[in-house]
Design a protein that fits this description.
493 residues, globular
């Protein structure tokens, strides 16, 4: 099996390099994108534990699109794909099992609604492109589940996410000082895209600030990051992002109610609404050209839904039809900035129903998991991830972060956090390998395992006894060790 996997991997790499060398002769080929792709994949193969750090760094600084026949993906999506292939290869090579979760089935049903609506698609190629955007979010979710296996990795990824929000915020504030108007960042150059990204990260930072076991020093750092991210979010003047962060922060408060939390949130919201720029954006700009164009596009989306109410017109169909519109505002701005109308217009009632079921189940799973955990990092991570997913619902009224390829990978990470923790902390689960509890001496006043060590143990998947034995018997192989992302001891024997 190992020899077969090595041959397949190197054959695919050979085809990729050969195609790229031929494409280098065409002017449409992006040389820098190719170089970035080769460097990223090389780093990933040599240092597999930097996977999520590489993804976050790419979205921060340089994320070109790289094309392969029939596939046009951003660099961070290629990294997700390669990292997942490497981990799957490792699991197959070691004959390791993977425990699926009911959420996997819900995500598969949602994917099926994309495929069913192809029957009405005016442009199959565009439909495939939009389906890939959703599919890459799902792949990022599975990458997290396969690659992140303990609380130290979880902490590192959370810190990197908040740090990325902080860096993006500082960059956007610098651009604002330079007179760039509504500022964006380096890669997230559109103010709405940056705002949506920050709206998804801010609830996670607030969860760590209020519910994590961090020291005062770390909480002070987290509080400063949250403050800077909030200022940058205000400066984007993105109404959909403001609505998203309000929904996310209120959801976080309802998930784990604390009077002091609500007091701080309402005082801050009241103060922000008194700012002249915010007041003008919310009240006086309701009739600006952007709102006018969006109303026209919303009307077109509603007509598409009325025409195909059950399965919709197909993924990406709004963009395909918008270019033929007689209305300049629709033709020039062919994206549909509304998550709910996109679900109805392109996926019909079938996809909308699947989406509702997905969120109901996700919320139930997140709350059940959080309530089963003692106060600590993992509980704060679940609450923050779930609140971040709810922020998507608020942003969805004026944008579509669920399908936006520059943002939805964060949703994939959040889903991975919730499911990975739920599979190892549901009360009553005593399957072998669910925890690594530490024994303690009888003078501790208890018997058996150290329950605190169990409660704050590593996040790991349910494993069979063969996997536990493999940890002591394996020798280094071609593929990197699963779970090596961000772990200090990854790859060491």
């Amino acid at each position: 099996m190992r020899a077969f996997l090595v041959i397949v991997i190197f054959a695919l790499v050979g085809v990729f390099i050969a195609h790229s060398l031929v494409s280098l002769q065409t002017q449409s080929f992006n040389l820098w994108a190719f170089v970035a792709m080769v460097i990223s994949v090389g780093l990933l193969l040599v240092f597999p534990r930097i996977g999520f750090g590489l993804i976050i760094g790419i979205v921060l600084f340089y994320d070109p699109r790289f094309s392969f026949p029939g596939i046009h993906l951003w660099l961070h999506q290629w990294v997700i794909l390669v990292a997942l292939v490497v981990l799957i290869g490792r699991y197959l090579h070691l004959h390791r099992s993977f425990k699926f979760h009911p959420l996997d089935g819900v995500l598969a049903v949602l994917l099926l609604t994309f495929l069913i609506s192809y029957i009405n698609s005016p442009d199959i190629g565009l439909s495939v492109k939009w389906t890939l955007y959703y599919f890459m979010m799902v792949l990022c979710y599975f990458l997290f589940r396969l690659g992140v296996t303990d609380r130290h990795q979880l902490r590192n990824i959370i810190v990197m996410l908040i740090l990325s929000g902080l860096i993006n915020s500082v960059v956007s504030m610098v651009f604002s000082r330079m007179g760039a108007g509504r500022p964006g960042a380096l890669v997230l150059s559109r103010p709405n895209a940056l705002g949506n990204y920050l709206a998804l990260i801010l609830p996670l930072g607030m969860a760590l600030l209020f519910f994590s076991p961090f020291s005062r020093k770390l909480k002070a750092w987290c509080g400063a990051a949250v403050l800077i991210i909030s200022i940058s979010l205000i400066l984007t003047l993105s109404r959909s992002s403001w609505l998203g962060v309000i929904v996310g922060l209120l959801a976080l408060g309802f998930f784990k109610p604390r009077p002091i939390y609500f007091l701080i949130i309402f005082l801050c919201l009241g103060g922000v609404l008194l700012l002249p720029e915010v007041k003008q954006r919310v009240v006086d700009d309701r009739e600006d050209s952007g709102v006018y164009y969006r109303r026209a596009k919303n009307d077109m989306a509603y007509l598409m839904f009325k025409e195909y109410p059950i399965v919709g017109r197909g993924p990406g169909s709004f963009q395909a039809l918008a270019v033929h519109s007689d209305f300049w505002g629709i033709k020039a701005h062919s994206g549909l900035e509304n998550l709910y109308l996109r679900l109805l217009a392109e996926g019909g009632l079938l996809q909308a129903l699947a989406f509702i079921i997905f969120y109901i189940y996700l919320t139930h799973l997140g709350l059940t998991t959080a309530r089963s955990l003692p106060p600590g990092l993992r509980q704060a991570a679940v609450l923050g991830a779930l609140a971040g997913c709810w922020a998507v619902l608020g942003c969805g009224l004026g944008d579509d972060p669920f399908i936006n390829p520059m943002i939805n990978w964060v949703v994939g990470i959040y889903l991975g956090i919730i499911v990975s923790i739920s599979q190892s902390t549901i009360p009553g689960s005593e399957e072998p390998g669910s925890y690594h509890p530490q024994p303690f001496s009888p003078q501790d006043g208890q018997s058996g395992y150290n329950r605190e060590a169990v409660a704050e143990g590593d996040i790991i998947e349910h494993q069979d006894s063969r996997k536990i034995e493999d940890q002591h018997q394996e020798k280094p192989g071609f593929f990197p060790e699963p779970g090596g992302y961000g772990r200090a001891d990854a790859g060491q024997e």
